[in-house]
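Figure S4 source data
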Amino acid sequence: MGPWLSVNDLKQQAYCPRVIYFRHCLPLTGRMTFKMVEGQTRQDEVTRFERRRSLQRYGLRDAERRFDLHVRSEQLRLSGRIDMALVAPELVVPVDFKSTEGPGAANWQLQLVAYTLILEEQFGRPSPFGLLYLLGPGRVVRVRSDAADRREVIAALDHARALVCSEGMPGPTPVRGRCRDCEFRRYCNDVW
């Protein structure tokens, strides 16, 4: 089946495959970037306020909020930490806080779909969608989790495990703007 991975590994692999290589194959620890620190600060603020808000923005009436929820799937050999899960009698929904002004990125959507798979296994109830809470505009975006999206997560998991098992350094992301604020920037001497 291969090594255990985190949902963050899947998100990072979609962003730049070198991140998962640096973390699992070398292994290296990246340095906290300004964006990471700022994002955590904003997330902490929202979590504090979120405890008092209604569920209206999420389209639910009756759900328990669980913050900083550690989850794992034995079947997928995948683990993670969800910013917030909404646990309702008939379903469970992951909510991921993102400190951004822009729209949800594809790697964030992959991350949310992975969380829906883990939550279904862990809670034994459907998780048909996830929610991105975009902190900049204060907007919530629904991300579906259908069969095609779930196949994409399984394919990404297979690809990530193959990368880790091969121990070969992949090429850098083709989007060089991502490198500017990367926690592993100092290790990519062929890019800089």
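Figure S5 source data
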Amino acid sequence: MPRAAPNKRKLTTLLLQRLRPQARAFMVWDAQQHGLALRVWPSGRRSWYLVYRRHGRPRRYHIGAADAVGLADARKLAAETMLDVIRGRDPAAEKRAARGAGTFAELAERYREEYARKKNKSWQQADYLVRRYLLPAWGKLSAESITRGNVRAVIGKIAGRILANRIRCAPQRRPFFRGR
């Protein structure tokens, strides 16, 4: 089956308004910005995508919904992202990895189940300290966003030095609790 010719045009706001949904989803490529495309679904929903190659394979990076991101902004974001691709980054893979990183609460739970119960005889005490002092402050934060400043703030609120030191060391030898 022969490949369909690419639907490549110089995108304008008037052209975007005149595009109508079809029975199948289709993409309209921008002739001005390399890799930028507008995808139109049969439901009428529209999104901006940037398509680039990484190690010889095409990657698709979702920029945003067309009703939220204008044509000029989409071109600007596509150009910035393409510059990152040229520098060696893979924005689509980074976005996917960030999505799976999880919150501090999820990471603490996983640590307790997969490591602490098996390797640490006093895991209940460490688990209590994490649940009592760290989860209320960091439970909903992404694990990567916790910094040394966050650690200092939580430890600084604890009156006793010994207790503060135990909380800081509760999950022993695990870098994600120490902060950056």
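Helices lie at 13-18, 71-86, 91-99, 104-119, 123-138, 148-156, 161-168. The beta strands are 8-9, 26-30, 36-40, 46-54, 57-65.
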